[in-house]
Design brief:
The chain has about 100 residues and is an alpha+beta fold. It has one domain. It has 2 helices and 2 strands, in the order ββαα. Strands 1-2 form a two-stranded antiparallel ribbon. The longest helix is centred in the middle third of the chain and has 24 residues. It starts with 14 loop residues before the first strand and ends in a 7-residue tail after the last helix.
């Protein structure tokens, strides 16, 4: 059985919606009539509000990384990522 995967490339472009038309805020490299999906964001349009949200997001990511770091420990196992099934479930080690 073969699995066929279709890779879909997506690019997010900021812009504004005015008079029924979407106006990109940055250059668009796609040809005319290229299909798009438009998602309207439920956020204020002021750059100050967007900037504040970006700062809040950064602070949340920093907090997450801090929590992750606080739980790290030295195991002395050098191949844990590669052989995790062996260490977790006792499956045979593999030679990769």
């Amino acid at each position: 059985m073969y699995l066929l995967l279709r890779v879909v490339m997506m690019q997010s472009i900021k812009g504004i919606f005015k008079d029924g038309v979407v106006h990109p805020s940055e250059p668009v490299s796609y040809p005319e009539s290229h299909p798009v999906i438009i998602t309207f964001l439920d956020v204020a349009t002021s750059s100050k509000t967007v900037s504040e949200q970006e700062e809040k997001n950064k602070a949340e990511w920093d907090r997450l990384f801090s929590v992750i770091e606080s739980f790290q420990m030295e195991t002395g196992i050098t191949d844990l990522a590669d052989q995790h099934n062996y260490y977790l479930y006792g499956t045979p080690q593999h030679d990769d």
